[in-house]
Structures are given as C-alpha cells and as structure tokens.
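**Fold in tokens:**
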Amino acid sequence: MKLRTEVLIIGGGATGVGIARDLSLRGVPSLLIEKGDFLSGASGRNHGLFHSGARYVVSDPEAARECITENRILRKIAPHCIEETGGLFVSLPEDGLDFRDRFIQACQEITIPAHLLSRDETFSLEPELHPDLLSSVKVPDGAIDPFELVLENAKDAEDHGAKFLLHTEITSLLLEGNRIKSVLAKDLVGGDEYSIEASYLINATGAWADHFLKRIALRIGVALSKGSMLITNQRLTQRVINRCRPPSDGDIIVPNHTVSIL
C-alpha cells in the first residue's frame, strides 16, 4: 500500500504524539508510526513525576529551567492529568545543611518556588518521615498520569486530521542522495506492508534513536540504559519526597494514584 504525507513521525511516546498534535492544530498533515502501542517506550515506563525542576536545580540549571517552564504550561493545558501533591526535599543529619542552602538559592535564581519548612512543619505534612530529619524545602512537584496525557493528545491530534499506524515497524529507508525519499513499513499484526513518502521525517524514538538511524549508517551517540523502579501496593506518602542532596539512586518517592513509585 502506498501512502503520502507531509510529515512522517517515528515513535508513539509523549514527544511523537505531542508533535503530531501540534502539527494537526497547524493544519499540517502527519502520519505517526509506532512499532508497539502508544507509550510502549520510556513514556510509559517512568515514575510519573511532575517535575518542578528542583531535582536538577543545582546540578543542571538549564534542565531545571526547562522543567519549571513546562510545569507551568501543563498546569494550564492539562490540569486533569496532574495531581498537585507538592514535593518535599528533606535533609537528614548525614546530608548536612550546606546543600540545602545552595538548593534554596538556586531555586530562587530560576524562580522555582521553594519554602523552607521546620522539622515540626514537615512532620505535620508527612508524619511518617524519618524521625531524625532536620528540615525540608517545599517545591511545586506533583504526580502526572503519562497515559492519560499522551492518549488525550493522540485523540485530539486524530480529531484534527493526524493519522497513526500502531504495531507497525519500519523495515527499510530508501535514500535519494542525502535525503530519505520514502520508508517501507510492515503491520506486525495484520501483515500489511506500506511504502510511505513524506516531505519530512521526524525521529521521535528517544533513547532508541540510534537503533533507527543505524538503518542508514548514522549515529548520534545516544546511550540506552535501564533504570529500576519499585512500586508499592499502597501509597506511602501524600507528597513527592526527595533527599535534599545531589540527585542519586534510591532517593525519591513519587505517590501516583493509589501506589508509590521509588
């Protein structure tokens, strides 16, 4: 089957679907191809943290600034996908207070709201925290439902003319000079094969970008590495809890619906 579109998007996660919606609202025809289902990659395998940017405010101010900017946008356009839990960065004796003071200053510089809470104020919000904690800093973290967010973007994009081919894998790329002229794809469920021409191709495969680019002997050096998450069968806290120290492993709890994700 031969298909023609203006923009071909590869990848059905938050980035690819968001691009499809943006294009559809501008009246630009697009077709998105995803070898699995929506959110079958990193967009559906995360801890659901609605970032304020505070986690990176000391180590990566640029990323923190981007986070708080998107935080404010999402509060306006998708409030129903967000639980505004708030977040606490807690200081334990072994953490000391030097990082806490740098943390608060860095938040102020990037305009991330950050309020120092005493030990008693912290326990009034989260009584089950470690009894030796010194203080905490309250920031506008929260929990987000990535499935609802992406699926609603997809529905709205489709309502405005975007097309999707799920469970469809790119099998080859056909080049004309240094441009991709067309792609060949196969429906992994029904077996249909497609030849798709597009004026532009967007690689929205995220951490799998190099897996896609190797078909045309290109590489951008994205490293695909796996993390680990632990999901409890109950909600341990009502707020996002971070250690007030440089970001590390095992130092964040995100409540999401009826569970907590560590």
Observations:
- The CA atoms of residues 243 and 251 lie 6 Å apart.
- The helical segments are 14-25, 61-77, 98-110, 119-125, 146-159, 209-213.
- The longest helix spans residues 61-77.
- The mean pLDDT is 94.
